[in-house]
Each structure stands twice: as structure tokens, then as C-alpha cells.
From TrEMBL:
<protein>
    <recommendedName>
        <fullName>Ribonuclease P protein component</fullName>
        <ecNumber>3.1.26.5</ecNumber>
    </recommendedName>
</protein>
<keyword id="KW-0378">Hydrolase</keyword>
<dbReference type="GO" id="GO:0000049">
    <property type="term" value="F:tRNA binding"/>
</dbReference>
<dbReference type="Pfam" id="PF00825">
    <property type="entry name" value="Ribonuclease_P"/>
</dbReference>
<dbReference type="GO" id="GO:0030677">
    <property type="term" value="C:ribonuclease P complex"/>
</dbReference>
<comment type="subunit">
    <text>Consists of a catalytic RNA component (M1 or rnpB) and a protein subunit.</text>
</comment>
<keyword id="KW-0540">Nuclease</keyword>
<keyword id="KW-0819">tRNA processing</keyword>
<dbReference type="InterPro" id="IPR000100">
    <property type="entry name" value="RNase_P"/>
</dbReference>
<keyword id="KW-0694">RNA-binding</keyword>
<dbReference type="InterPro" id="IPR020539">
    <property type="entry name" value="RNase_P_CS"/>
</dbReference>
<comment type="function">
    <text>RNaseP catalyzes the removal of the 5'-leader sequence from pre-tRNA to produce the mature 5'-terminus. It can also cleave other RNA substrates such as 4.5S RNA. The protein component plays an auxiliary but essential role in vivo by binding to the 5'-leader sequence and broadening the substrate specificity of the ribozyme.</text>
</comment>
<dbReference type="GO" id="GO:0001682">
    <property type="term" value="P:tRNA 5'-leader removal"/>
</dbReference>
<comment type="similarity">
    <text>Belongs to the RnpA family.</text>
</comment>
<dbReference type="InterPro" id="IPR014721">
    <property type="entry name" value="Ribsml_uS5_D2-typ_fold_subgr"/>
</dbReference>
<keyword id="KW-0255">Endonuclease</keyword>
<dbReference type="InterPro" id="IPR020568">
    <property type="entry name" value="Ribosomal_Su5_D2-typ_SF"/>
</dbReference>
């Protein structure tokens, strides 16, 4: 389970990350990353508690409700395993593509790590693959 301080909740946080952050696509996932130290300071300062925050987008294209919830649970578990390796200023939104329903968890972890490395968020030496 992903603890509360590591979750994105507000629509504005999701929108900001998707629109202002960097994005990379993988076979079963699209990863959006916004580092708050890169972001220009706006009218309201961002107060951060905890480490990196994750948001998930699992649409009906992935499958029926049971499948979507299973994919979301697996992605939350994967995100919880990455919190110590990522910068605390990162907001990360993961959009599951239809292939995520059939992909094994270790493949989803590999794709997420690959995307985060390409975006420069995960250090290259961090290779704790399952």
C-alpha cells in the first residue's frame, strides 16, 4: 500500500504534472514527471511533506473495473517500492495503457524504472530490479 503522503489527490496536481512535466511512453505505461525545483515559483508556494508523490490514471480502456483495480493495486505497490530512490520534490503520474492489464508486475516495474531513468529522475546506478 502506498502511504498517504506519497499520493497525488487534487485534480490540479494531476493536471500540473501532466501539462508542465516531462513525459515518456513505454509499451504499457506513460510516465509524467514534474520536479518542483524545476518549476517556476507561482503565486502559491508548494508545501511538500514526505517524499515523491504518485498519481495513477487507469481508464476504462484498460478493462473492466476488476481489471482496472488490479492494475492500480499493482502500480501502487511498485510505486511504494521506489519512494526511497526518487527525489522528494517529484510528482509522478503514471497512465496505464491497455497492455498493462496482461503485463506481469516485474515487467511494469522494469518499464517504470526505464522511463524514470530516461527522464533523469531515477539515478542510473539504481538497478534493484525484481
Amino acid at each position: 500500500m502506498l502511504p498517504e503522503p506519497y499520493r497525488l489527490h487534487r485534480r490540479s496536481d494531476f493536471s500540473r504534472t501532466v501539462r508542465q512535466g516531462r513525459r515518456i511512453g513505454r509499451r504499457d505505461l506513460v510516465v509524467h514527471v514534474l520536479l518542483h525545483d524545476e518549476q517556476a515559483s507561482g503565486p502559491t508556494p508548494v508545501i511538500r511533506v514526505g517524499g515523491p508523490r504518485f498519481g495513477l490514471i487507469v481508464s476504462k480502456a484498460v478493462g473492466p473495473a476488476v481489471v482496472r483495480h488490479r492494475v492500480a493495486r499493482r502500480l501502487r505497490h511498485i510505486c511504494a517500492s521506489l519512494t526511497d530512490e526518487l527525489p522528494g520534490s517529484a510528482d509522478i503520474v503514471i497512465r496505464a495503457l491497455p497492455g498493462a492489464a496482461d503485463a506481469p508486475s516485474d515487467e511494469l516495474l522494469r518499464q517504470l524504472r526505464s522511463g524514470l531513468r530516461k527522464l533523469g529522475t531515477l539515478p542510473v546506478g539504481a538497478n534493484h530490479e525484481v
